[in-house]
Amino acid sequence: MTGIPWLLHGLLVLSCLISDASAIYTPLREYAGNTFFDNWAYYGNVDNTTWGNVTFVDKDAATQKKLTYVNDAGNAVVKVDDLTTIAPAQLVNRDTIRLTSLHSYGVGTLILIDAVHIPYGCSVWPSFWTYGIEQEWPLAGEIDIIEGINGMENNQVALHALGGCLKAEVPGQQTGVTIEGDCSKPQGCLVAETKPNSFGMGFAKAGGGVFALQMEESGIYSWFWSRPDIPANVQNGQFSSQSIDTSRWGIPSAGYPSSRCNITQFFPPQNLVLLTTLCGVWAGNPSIYQQTCKTPTNSCVADNIIGPGDKFATAYWEIRYIRTYTNNNATSQSPSDSTSKGPSVITKTVTVSATVQDTAATSNGAHAQRHKPLGMLWILYCLVFFWR
């Protein structure tokens, strides 16, 4: 080791090992089958966050109206009321669901959701996201894993944080297209998915797919795979006995390296949120609504909320599972530490971006590379240095 002190050599070798350790995740918790709804809080209030034209019902009402249940396939169904007819004179909200997990998940966590169907249709605004429940938004951040509206065909991923969190653009670190790089803007630092069938009718016709979110000090990364493209290490094995190696997944759809955003500072442990709202300030914005929806009066509320509920026949989630994993360094909280807060605390930012058009995906060859900032070149260097 000429010219390099043994201590420095040891530190370099240790850093090599640590750089790869966060790629391996072990099972932590699964929401699936008959116990899917056991560890969620039902909101039980009107949508006072995105000002959608809905009432998020409580668990008793959801069960009675069969808005949440497990179907014959063993999948969790979370739906908008599609049976009630609302007369114009009533001016009432339509019932739907908002669920918040009783557990929170921090740095060192991997989250997977396998969905067969995501709500879609004019006025429909589904999202699966996270936020730091212990503080008023946006003090503890927000991560949008799945979100879209109306007739959109592509999912959008976003981070929301206080000023000082920016999206670093590193060539070859994501396949999606960055729309906004400042995470403190109303739409957050926004990335549009470019892979086909990530949202809407296309997602349903393809049999759904899997979305993954990795939270590490080195960055936050998100993947999407349509049903035919799900990696073998996600498809195979039982949850309780299967570790996940994310280094085999290739480049993510959205990458947020920590070089311009301190992940541990801006994103303390996050609770999961699954919901569907209707119209509101994004899906119901007249200029945005009319981009993908052509209805008799071009009014989101008048042409959708009012009248028979059969317009919402496709406004439901069907979920095979939500799984969480840890690299054993994760920060999280148990239900006793992380309980459902009242309406004044549970908030969500308003997404104001317009519908994103399809864009060409990046070179397929890039998908074979490792997504982490240190990458395969660093690992190769570590091996060469260690054995010299």
From TrEMBL:
Pfam families: GH16_XgeA (PF26113)
Signal peptide: 1-23
GO-annotated biological processes: glucan catabolic process
Domain GH16: 19-291
Entry-linked SUPFAM superfamilies: Concanavalin A-like lectins/glucanases
PROSITE patterns hit by this protein: GH16_2 (PS51762)
GO MF annotations in UniProt: hydrolase activity, hydrolyzing O-glycosyl compounds
UniProt keyword list: Hydrolase, Signal
Record's protein name: Glycoside hydrolase family 16 protein
